[in-house]
Amino acid sequence: MKYRWFVVFMLFLACAISYLDRAALSVAAPLIAKDLQLDAAHLGIVFSAFFVGYSLFCFIGGYAADRFGAKRVLVVAIGLWSIFCGLTATATSLAGLLVIRVVFGAGEGPLATCTNKIVSNWFERKEQTTAVGFANSGLQLGAALAGPIVGLMALHWGWRIPFIVIGVVGLLWVIMWSIFSTDRPEHNRWARGAGSAAMLARAENTGSEAKPRMSLGFYLKSPTIWATSLAYFGYAYILYFFLSWFPSYLMMERHLSLSSMSIVNVIPWVLGFAGIALGGLTSDMIFRWTGNALKSRKIVIVGGLLVAAACVACAGTATSVGAAVALMGITVFFMNLTLSVYWAIILDTVEPARMGGVGGFMHLLANTAGILAPILTGFLVQWTHVFTSAFMLSGGVALAGAIAVAVFVNAPRADVEVRGHGAEIPQPQAE
Q: Ranges for the Major facilitator superfamily (MFS) profile domain (predicted)?
């Protein structure tokens, strides 16, 4: 296996750990609510607190990756989130839990943008979407493992122990990453073996210190970036509604036991794992059929979000546990087909020296859904005593994201050239 795929595997593990950490609170939420005497509205605020820190540091972390290197940012970020994951076990009040979750979220914020930036440095453009898809598929695997791991540990040892164990796992990853990773292949002694000549030649031609041609503001005014961000927001709204509240929905409205919920909750995440892994490959396959990169991105995003929107809305009116879980499984699969494609648009349209800042901005906008979805769901459940309206709202937000891409992501303008898969790359304008 070429060393660059080992780097992607390490990023895959980081993504898995991040969602194992993040989903742990959702799985343990009924026990935490009982222990700390939290109602549904308070629980929604706790879920949302994570995304206050997370959303802000999506952008700050991406900007820092452009300035200081993605490897260093990930060492600090994952070390921080692992420590605060462990500190969750010390929470004895709502206020303490909120502070821990905000800092924990700040630590997780830079991961996606740093992953994208590292892949852009290590891979040829024709392989980047596939590599991003593989790395991001760890997210769903971590969430799938959270149900049985956290659920069984919480049943046997209480809800606090899983957070300590998962925090230790994260710190072990940091040690491995510090030893074996670099930002670029030409800096890595393990990447200089047989079979790496082409990769190193590309890295040397690109240059380690390439200067940006365009300002960050130039990209942040692009309709393509804004439309992609809004679609990503639609994806993220369903994701965070599901991540935060689906376990509680299964227990509160469907009356499953903690052990049964821990197993049933795995099913949609396994389908989501397959969806992320297939998303980049699907987009590249459509491109080969159509010869149009933009069309391939739009088909995957619009089609995936439309199916997800319809299924999550129907899940809210399902008459049985089996139907609800099946519909959420389809939802999670199709929405995750789109995940790698948002990042592919950044890879295709943004120069490497601005990739962290632009990707972080997109991630910041998208992940404000993490603030809104949990807290809106909490208040809707508190007000209506059922989850139906929350499912419907999630579908509506995803539908809006699909429409944004269909309408506002358009063909390249006259002042851009075609590169790579036919995507638009801005050219420097005369002063």
A: 7-413
Q: Which residues of 194-211 are buried (b: 16+ CB within 10 A; e: fewer)?
A: eebeebeebbeeeeeeee
Closest among 251, 84, 266, 71 to 176, alpha carbons compared? 71
- Please name the residues in contact with 157: beta carbons below 8 A apart, sequence gap of 6 or more: none
* C-alpha span between 353 and 362 (Å, rounded): 16
- Cα–Cα distance, 137 to 159 (Å, whole number): 27
> What global pTM score does this model have?
0.72
State residue 171's pLDDT score: 96
In whole angstroms, give the CA distance from residue 356 to residue 216: 10
Is residue 31 within 8 A of residue 355, CB to CB? The reply is no
DSSP-derived 3-state class of residue 426: strand
Structural domains for the chain = 3-180+215-415 (1.20.1250.20)
Cα 136 to Cα 75, 167, 172, 273, 348: the distances in Å are: 18, 20, 20, 9, 18
Bridge partners of 424?
418
pLDDT digits (tens, 9 = 90+) for 254-307: 878 777 776 777 788 788 888 888 887 888 788 778 877 778 888 999 999 999
* Measured distance CA(431)–CA(424) in Å, rounded: 21
